[in-house]
C-alpha cells in the first residue's frame, strides 16, 4: 500500500522540521514521567526489597498481588485516579485533576507495582546468596534491605528503565486524568492519540518515532553508565 | 548507600514538583467535545480571548455525554457541548447555573465514493438514513454518548429503524476521529460534524455524500457549572469567557475561523 | 557476660526425620582453638550453624556460661564467603553496619583492619576481583572487626593454595591471641595439628572424642577416629 510508506516518508519530513510545540510536548513527557519514576524508585524499590526479605504472614499473597498489579491496564488506573482526584472524590479539594500533578500520580500508581515486582525478584535472588552471611553478621531486616538494594543497584536499573518505559509509553491513564490539554497536560502519547483521531497519521507516526528514539536513548545511556560502573564492581 | 541516594533524590523531587505546578496567571477548565477540539477552532479563538482577558482556557476534549459527567462531578468550570436536550436537563437538575447558545455547525453524511446505498440521491437526511438501513450498508457509529451519537440515534428513531446489533452496524465506542478512521478502513458510512471531517486527513475512499438538510444543524451551547453545587468553580473567570464567546467579539472570532477557506462554525445570537 | 563454659547437652537436629546432629554433648572453654574433625556428612557445618544461631536445634540445650545467647558476641566465617558488589573497604566494614557505626568510623576501623590482614593497598579495589585467599582473609577480617567472643570458621582454607593457607592461618592465630575462642572445621589434618589446642571428633552426628590435639593423633580412642586419620593421611604422623 502506498499509504503506509507515504505516511512514514511524511513522518520523517515532519521530524526534520522539528518545531517548538513538539519540543514542549517532549519535554513535558520527560518531566512528568521522570518525576513519576523518581517517586516510583523511592517507593517501589524498597517495597519490592521488603517483600523479598521480610518474613511475615501473607508474604506470598503480597507478591502475587504486586505481580498482578503489574499488568493493570493503564485505563483502569486512570479511572481510579480520576475518581479519587475528582472534585466529588476523596482528594477533590486539592484541585489536582487535569494538571501535570494528576498525571504524575497516575503514573506513580502504574510504575510502583512494576518496579516493586522486578525489585522483589532481583533482591530475592541476591538475598538467597547473602542470607546466611548477613544473618551471621546480625543484620536486621531493614539493614538487609538497604544493603541488598545497594548491592543490586546494577540489576535494579532495569526496574527503573522498565518503569520509565511504561510511564512514557502509556496513554490511557494520562489521557483521563490529564485531559490532554494543549500547552498544559499534552504529552507525547496523548498527542499521538489526538493526531490519530484527526486522521493525521504521519504526524502521529512522527511523534511515535520521537518517543521510540527517546526511550532508546535513555536505555542506551543507562546501559553505557551501567557497563562503566559495573566494570569496577561486578 | 541507599540513604545517600535518597538524600539526593528528595530535593530533586521537590524542585521538579515545583516546576510542574508553576502556571502563570488565571486559568479555567472547559470541558468540550472532540469535534470542536479536532477542528482546530479552539486553537484559533482561545488565543484571542486569552490576549484580551489574560485568562488561560484549558480545554479537555471529551464526548458530550462524558463532558456532562465531568461537569456533574465539578471537574470543570464551564462546558461547551452540543446536545440541546441533555444540556437543558443538566441545567434544570441544578448542575449548571445557566446555558447560552454559542454557535452551530452541521453534520455531514460521509461514506465510500461508490455509495452502495445511494445516499447521494436522498432528498432529506431521514431518507439517507433509511437508505443505509434498507440496503444494509456498513455504518460506523460513535456509540459513545456524544452529541453526534445522540443526533445519529434521533435519525434512526425518526425513520423507525433499530440498527442496534445488526451485522452492518459497527459501534466503535470512540471519538469522531477514531470512528472516521474506522469508516475509512472498512468503507463504511458515518455521521460526522463538518469540522472534524474538514480537519480529517486519513480519508482514503471516503467523501461527503449528503449535506445541507436543516435537520443536520448542530447547535452548541455553553454552560456555567453551578457554583452553588461546586463552590470551587471559578465563577468570575468562567463568566468572562462565557460573556466573551457569546459577545460580538467572540462571534466574530468564531466566524473568522476557517479551514481550507471554509467557515465551519456559525455564531448563534443569544436567546 | 561470659559465654563460657559453653555446654551442649543432647543437642539434636533432625530436619526431616534423618538425624544430622544426634545427641551432641560438648563443653567448650573460653580459650584456644578447637578444631572439629570428622568425615563428610558428620554434621560439622550444622554444628557450627547451630552455635551461630542460624539453625534452631530440634532438641537438647545450649548453655552459654549460665547466661543468655548473645548473637553479637558470636561470629562466623563461611566456606564460601560472599563479597558484596562493592569495594574492599565497604566489605571489610560490613559487619559494623548493623552495629550502628557511622560511615566515617566504619571507614577508619575498616582501614585499620585491612592494615592488619595485609590488604590495605587493595582498599578501593573491587572485592570480587580479589583472589580466593584474599577473599577469605577479607571475610576473616570482616568478622574479626565485630570483636566476637566466639568465632566459628567453617572450612576456612578449603581450595586455597599453600601460601594462601598460611596467610589465613597467621590471621587465625592472631585472633586467638586476642582472646577470642575459635571453633573451626577443616579437612586439612596438617592444619589441625598446626592450629588446634583440642580436637572434637564428630561422626554420625555425635561427638566421639574430645581430647587435646596430641592425644587425638597419637592415641585415637575410637576405631572411627583411627580409620579417619589413616584415610585422610597418606603418611604416619608421630608426636
In short:
The complex is a heterotrimer of chains A (about 230), B (about 270) and C (about 240). Chain A is mainly alpha-helical. Chain A has one domain: Orthogonal Bundle (MetI-like fold), CATH 1.10.3720.
Your description of this structure?
Chain A has 234 residues and is mostly helical. Chain A has one domain: MetI-like (MetI-like fold). Helices cover 80% and strands 0% of the residues of chain A. Chain A has helices at residues 2-16, 20-53, 59-70, 74-85, 100-136, 141-151, 153-169, 172-178, 188-197, 201-233. In chain A, helix 7 (153-169) runs antiparallel to helix 10 (201-233). Chain B contains eleven helices and twelve strands. Chain B is α/β, with parallel strands linked by helices and 271 residues long. Chain B is globular, with a radius of gyration of 21 Å. Chain C has a six-stranded mixed beta sheet, sandwiched between helices. Chain C has a three-stranded antiparallel beta sheet with strand order 2-1-4, covered by helices on one side. Chain C folds into two domains: 6-83 and 147-232, P-loop containing nucleotide triphosphate hydrolases (Rossmann fold, 3-Layer(aba) Sandwich); 84-129, no CATH class. The model of chain C is unreliable at 234-239 (pLDDT under 50). At the A-C interface, helix 5 and helix 6 of A face loops of C. Chain C: Belongs to the ABC transporter superfamily. Chain C: Its main location: membrane. Chain C: It comes from Denitromonas iodatirespirans. Chain C: It is found in: Cell membrane.
Amino acid at each position: 500500500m502506498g499509504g503506509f510508506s507515504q505516511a512514514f516518508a511524511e513522518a520523517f519530513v515532519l521530524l526534520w522540521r522539528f518545531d517548538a510545540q513538539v519540543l514542549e510536548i517532549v519535554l513535558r513527557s520527560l518531566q512528568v514521567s521522570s518525576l513519576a519514576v523518581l517517586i516510583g524508585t523511592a517507593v517501589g524499590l524498597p517495597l519490592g526489597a521488603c517483600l523479598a526479605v521480610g518474613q511475615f504472614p501473607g508474604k506470598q499473597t503480597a507478591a502475587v498481588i504486586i505481580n498482578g498489579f503489574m499488568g493493570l491496564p493503564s485505563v483502569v488506573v486512570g479511572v481510579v485516579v480520576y475518581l479519587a482526584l475528582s472534585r466529588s472524590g476523596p482528594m477533590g479539594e486539592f484541585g489536582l485533576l487535569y494538571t501535570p500533578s494528576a498525571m504524575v500520580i497516575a503514573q506513580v500508581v502504574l510504575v510502583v507495582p512494576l518496579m516493586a515486582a522486578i525489585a522483589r525478584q532481583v533482591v530475592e535472588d541476591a538475598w538467597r546468596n547473602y542470607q546466611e552471611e548477613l544473618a551471621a553478621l546480625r543484620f536486621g531486616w531493614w539493614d538487609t534491605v538497604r544493603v541488598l538494594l545497594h548491592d543490586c543497584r546494577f540489576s535494579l536499573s532495569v526496574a527503573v528503565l522498565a518503569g520509565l518505559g511504561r510511564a512514557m509509553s502509556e496513554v490511557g491513564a494520562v489521557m483521563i486524568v490529564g485531559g490532554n490539554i494543549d500547552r498544559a497536560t499534552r504529552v507525547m502519547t496523548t498527542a499521538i492519540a489526538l493526531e490519530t483521531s484527526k486522521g493525521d497519521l504521519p504526524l502521529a507516526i512522527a511523534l511515535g518515532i520521537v518517543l521510540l528514539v527517546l526511550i532508546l536513548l535513555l536505555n542506551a545511556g543507562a546501559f553505557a553508565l551501567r557497563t562503566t560502573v559495573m566494570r569496577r564492581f561486578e | 548507600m541507599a540513604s545517600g541516594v535518597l538524600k539526593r533524590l528528595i530535593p530533586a523531587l521537590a524542585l521538579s514538583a515545583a516546576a510542574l505546578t508553576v502556571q502563570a496567571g488565571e486559568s479555567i477548565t472547559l470541558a468540550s467535545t472532540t469535534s470542536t477540539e479536532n477542528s482546530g477552532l479552539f486553537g484559533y479563538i482561545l488565543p484571542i480571548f486569552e490576549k484580551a482577558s489574560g485568562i488561560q482556557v484549558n480545554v479537555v476534549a471529551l464526548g458530550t455525554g462524558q463532558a456532562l459527567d465531568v461537569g456533574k462531578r465539578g471537574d470543570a468550570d464551564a462546558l461547551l457541548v452540543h446536545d440541546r436536550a441533555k444540556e437543558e436537563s443538566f441545567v434544570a437538575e441544578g448542575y449548571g447555573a445557566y446555558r447560552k447558545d454559542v454557535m452551530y455547525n452541521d453534520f455531514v453524511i460521509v461514506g465510500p465514493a461508490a455509495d452502495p446505498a445511494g445516499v447521494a440521491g436522498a432528498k432529506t437526511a431521514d431518507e439517507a438514513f433509511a437508505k443505509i438501513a434498507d440496503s444494509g450498508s456498513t455504518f460506523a457509529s460513535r456509540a459513545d454518548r456524544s452529541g453526534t451519537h445522540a443526533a445519529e440515534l434521533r435519525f434512526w428513531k425518526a425513520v423507525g429503524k433499530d440498527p442496534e446489533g445488526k451485522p452492518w452496524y459497527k459501534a466503535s465506542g470512540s471519538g469522531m476521529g477514531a470512528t472516521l478512521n474506522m469508516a475509512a478502513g472498512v468503507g463504511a458510512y458515518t455521521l460526522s460534524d463538518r469540522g472534524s471531517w474538514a480537519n480529517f486527513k486519513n480519508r482514503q475512499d471516503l467523501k461527503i455524500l449528503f449535506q445541507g438538510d436543516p435537520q443536520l444543524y448542530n447547535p452548541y451551547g455553553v454552560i456555567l457549572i453551578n457554583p452553588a453545587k461546586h463552590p470551587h468553580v471559578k465563577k468570575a473567570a468562567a463568566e468572562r469567557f462565557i460573556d466573551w464567546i457569546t459577545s460580538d467579539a467572540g462571534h466574530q472570532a468564531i466566524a473568522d475561523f476557517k479551514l481550507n477557506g471554509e467557515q465551519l462554525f456559525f455564531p448563534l445570537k443569544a436567546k | 557476660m561470659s559465654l563460657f563454659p559453653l555446654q551442649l547437652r543432647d543437642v539434636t537436629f533432625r530436619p526431616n526425620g534423618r538425624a544430622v546432629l544426634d545427641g551432641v554433648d560438648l563443653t567448650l572453654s573460653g580459650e584456644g582453638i578447637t578444631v572439629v574433625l570428622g568425615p563428610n556428612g558428620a554434621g560439622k557445618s550444622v554444628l557450627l550453624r547451630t552455635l551461630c544461631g542460624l539453625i534452631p536445634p530440634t532438641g537438647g540445650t545450649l548453655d552459654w556460661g549460665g547466661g543468655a545467647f548473645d548473637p553479637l558476641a558470636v561470629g562466623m566465617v563461611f566456606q564460601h564467603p560472599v563479597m558484596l558488589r562493592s569495594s574492599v573497604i565497604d566489605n571489610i566494614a560490613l559487619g559494623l553496619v548493623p552495629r550502628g557505626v557511622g560511615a566515617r568510623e566504619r571507614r577508619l576501623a575498616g582501614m585499620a583492619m585491612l592494615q592488619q590482614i595485609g590488604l590495605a593497598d587493595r582498599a578501593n579495589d573491587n572485592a570480587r576481583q580479589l583472589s580466593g585467599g584474599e577473599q577469605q582473609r577479607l571475610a576473616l577480617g570482616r568478622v574479626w572487626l565485630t570483636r566476637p567472643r566466639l568465632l566459628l570458621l567453617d572450612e576456612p582454607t578449603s581450595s586455597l593454595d599453600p601460601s594462601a593457607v598460611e596467610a589465613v592461618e597467621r590471621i587465625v592465630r592472631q585472633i586467638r591471641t586476642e582472646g577470642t575462642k575459635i571453633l573451626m572445621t577443616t579437612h586439612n589434618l596438617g592444619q589441625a595439628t598446626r592450629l588446634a589446642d583440642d580436637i572434637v571428633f564428630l561422626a554420625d552426628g555425635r561427638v566421639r572424642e574430645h581430647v587435646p590435639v596430641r592425644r587425638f593423633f597419637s592415641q585415637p580412642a575410637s576405631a572411627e577416629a583411627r580409620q579417619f586419620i589413616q584415610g585422610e593421611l597418606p603418611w604416619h604422623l608421630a608426636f
